Amino acid sequence: MGKDILDKTSKPSFGVPEGYFDRLQVRLQEIPGKEAPVSTWQKSKPYLVMAACFLLSLIAGTGILKMTTGQNVSDADQFYYDLGYADLIPVTYDAPSLYEGEGAAEISSEDIEDYLIATGVSVNRLAYSETLNGK
Amino acid sequence: MDDKEILETYGSGQREAAFNQIVAKYSEKLYWLVRHFLCSHEDTDDLLQEIFVKVWQSLPSFRGESKLYTWLYAIATNQALNFLHKQKIRAVLNFKDITTEMENKIDEDQHFNGDEAQRLLLKAMGRLPEKQRTVFSLRYFEDLSYEDISEILGTSVGALKASYHFAAEKIKDEIKKYSEPD
């Protein structure tokens, strides 16, 4: 039976060189002179260093991200400025000034024509529009 | 000097004296614990030095929540298992089989005094999964109680009993297979 096999088999016996354990004890008892005990602070030191490195990289990463994002916006502004993009946008009065206030009801056809001419609408186009409107 | 006195000695500031007592009392026991894991005398000798360095460095953090000897056995067992892990990785990197390597070590060990059946038992033990091997070694070779093994390995007694049962069955089968071929 299986159980008998394990019971019949005596525990393996290893040997050691003569006087080994005496020499071993002497060798092991020299350890305190060579190795200082490690305190809890020393044990936690690597973890603290790792946490500090993580924080630093997080701060540096956030800083770099902010700087590069800001730079991009500014570059874009400069790009459009250089192109004269702002000059391409027609200059108009503010909407409230057109529709509010005392003068709002007093806008004449001439005012409208002046405005259209000022915004670049050609005279031919204006004449064509007037023809369509039956003027 | 019993464990309590050793710890009192350590607590009173006589650290080296306490450590020397631990060495005197446990070096041989831990040697055999590790030797049954690693089989090789040379490997055991090297590892024992590392184990006691670890013991010396960890003594300040020993709170006395467990027994001194289960704490020492836990350190030795963990170190032995780490050593085996490293050996396994080295073997894989060198395209070698760790089981064959271990078996060769048993065959070539000049300090092995056992017979063929005992050699088979050690080889069969080497083929066990890590957990079963650990439990079998602590129970069979060191005669530790399941309660103490539970404290060392942090596993329930029920799980340990099951592990030991499976390990013993596998070893018996292996010995039977080799001792009664066909």
Q: Beta-strand level of the residues of chain B, as a percent range?
A: under 5%
Structural class of chain A: mainly alpha
Major sheet of chain B: size, sense and barrel closure? none
Alpha-carbon distance between the two ends of chain A: 121 Å
- The overall pLDDT of chain B, averaged over residues, is 88
Name the poorly predicted regions of chain B: none
Number of structural domains of chain B: 2
User: Which percent range describes the beta-strand content of chain A?
Assistant: under 5%
User: Any idea what the radius of gyration of chain A is?
Assistant: 46 Å
Shape of chain B: globular
Content-based structural category of chain B: mainly alpha
Number of H- or I-type helical stretches of chain B: 9
What CATH architecture of the largest domain in chain B would you give? Orthogonal Bundle
Can you tell me the CATH class of the largest domain in chain B? Mainly Alpha
The SSE order of chain B reads HHHHHHHHH
CATH fold-level label of the largest domain in chain B: Rna Polymerase Sigma Factor, Chain: A
Low-confidence stretches of chain A: none
Count the beta strands of chain B: 0
Query: Largest contact between protein chains?
Result: A-B, 29 and 46 residues
Overall, the morphology of chain A is: rod-shaped
